[in-house]
Write a structure and sequence with these properties.
This protein has 406 residues and is of the alpha+beta class. It is 26% helix and 17% strand. Helix 4 runs parallel beside helix 6.
Length: 406
């Protein structure tokens, strides 16, 4: 895909965890507009140890106009296969959000359950089965000369660690003598095996598009909902899934459109999950939904080579999540975080403790030097910008917890 399309080195997920990140991508909106902030409430039962009332975590409302719906309204047939997860209750199926065909899966890779129920042969991963379903969907659309929109959120690479035994054996041998410095190095062969399986299924999709003669008519985007859960796989970045450091937020973005997007091209522009919605609409020449705010930036001109870079703009993350309270230190390992990126600078605010971290990513990509003390002017400037954004988007305010008693 990188050889055949444009690869971004500065791409961000909207969140460092899956549910809110997927909600932002599908809705085109930052979390204060959707109310989706966390996967689950890991602070339940310990509310008295939090200074503020934690904003309620919602599912994506059925009246949201998700990214597939303008395509459906324009005559496209739409499908979704894989990890839905913009609702923890599973009470709202993708078909209720405008997908013509949809099979939802989660929890396991083998012997997995799906909604609706499907026949999953022994030894076949649910992802392999769903790839087959997606290929049939594209074939049907092609035979009926109908444009299609396909959302393919593979459950790989995600726990539980399950992969083909021969692939695990292959990588176990390949990794002999290698020194993994992060936690859980014993997981690496299975994670690599799962990644290989993901690669193969993406390859099947690409081959199907080619076999159907649709390469010049099909825009393909590959990305992820958060950084790796294994510290050995975040490269040069600090942190991992669940953390607002770059290791939790940096994800791949690759865009391919044969004949339109320059093969082998790269971009360093900072893009984020909410940018996909307006970009897809412009590339497909569709109108934006009326009276439905989109928070992302249309990067189509960059993809098509009409501009060299997109204008500077600030991007944000509103993340009221609490997990892993330490009784000894009386602190949460992860507490409420609000983030703003402005140019080379990144500010992380910790409302629970009145603390901040300010980094210059151009000089310190590993986020090791907190500049709050040495650059108070920038800290003040970005704090005010962040507060203005929170107010403009009507984000839930900090409300003191009357039951606070750590």
């Amino acid at each position: 895909l990188s050889r055949e399309g444009m690869k971004f080195s500065g791409g961000l997920a909207a969140f460092p965890t899956c549910k809110p990140s997927r909600a932002a991508l599908l809705s085109g909106q930052y979390s204060p507009r959707t109310g989706v902030y966390r996967v689950v409430d890991r602070h339940t039962g310990q509310e008295n140890k939090i200074r503020f009332l934690v904003p309620k975590n919602e599912d994506v409302a059925l009246d949201k106009i998700l990214i597939n719906e303008p395509f459906k309204a324009a005559g496209y047939t739409t499908a979704m296969y894989g990890k839905w997860h913009i609702s923890n209750s599973r009470k709202a199926h993708p078909s209720q959000y405008g997908f013509d065909r949809a099979i939802e899966s989660a929890g396991k890779h083998f012997n997995a359950n799906t909604l609706p129920e499907t026949d999953l042969p022994e030894g076949i991963s649910v992802e392999e089965m769903l790839t087959g379903q997606a290929i049939e969907f594209m074939k049907d659309a092609s035979e009926n000369d109908q444009p299609f929109f396909l959302y393919m959120p593979y459950f790989w690479v995600h726990r539980p660690l399950e992969a083909k035994a021969e692939y695990v054996d292959y990588f176990t041998k390949k990794f002999e003598g290698m020194n993994f410095t992060g936690k859980n190095p014993e997981e690496m062969p299975t994670i690599a095996a799962m990644t290989k399986m993901l690669d193969e299924e993406v390859g099947r999709l690409l081959e199907a598009v080619n076999d159907l003669g649709l390469e010049e008519e099909t825009i393909i985007v590959f990305t992820s909902d958060n950084g790796s859960f294994n510290e050995n796989l975040v490269g040069k970045f600090r942190g991992r899934k669940g953390e607002t450091y770059e290791g939790g937020l940096r994800v791949p973005y690759i865009f391919k459109w044969k004949g339109k997007i320059e093969p082998g091209s790269t971009a360093s522009d900072r893009i984020i999950g909410v940018d996909l919605y307006p970009t897809f609409l412009r590339l497909a020449q569709l109108e934006r939904p009326a009276e439905y705010p989109l928070d992302g930036y249309d990067i189509s001109s960059l993809l098509l080579g009409q501009i060299e870079s997109i204008p500077d703009r600030d991007v944000f993350c509103y993340f009221p999540k609490y997990t892993r309270y330490d009784e000894k230190t009386k602190r949460w390992a992860e507490s409420w975080r609000n983030v703003i990126y402005e140019g080379d600078y990144k500010l992380i605010k910790y409302p629970e403790y009145g603390e901040s971290e300010l980094f210059n990513l151009a000089d310190d990509i590993q986020e090791t030097k907190n500049l709050v003390a040495s650059n108070p002017e920038k800290h003040t400037e970005l704090s005010r910008k962040l507060n203005r954004w929170l107010k403009s988007i009507d984000a839930p305010k900090k409300v003191s917890n009357p039951d606070y008693s750590p």
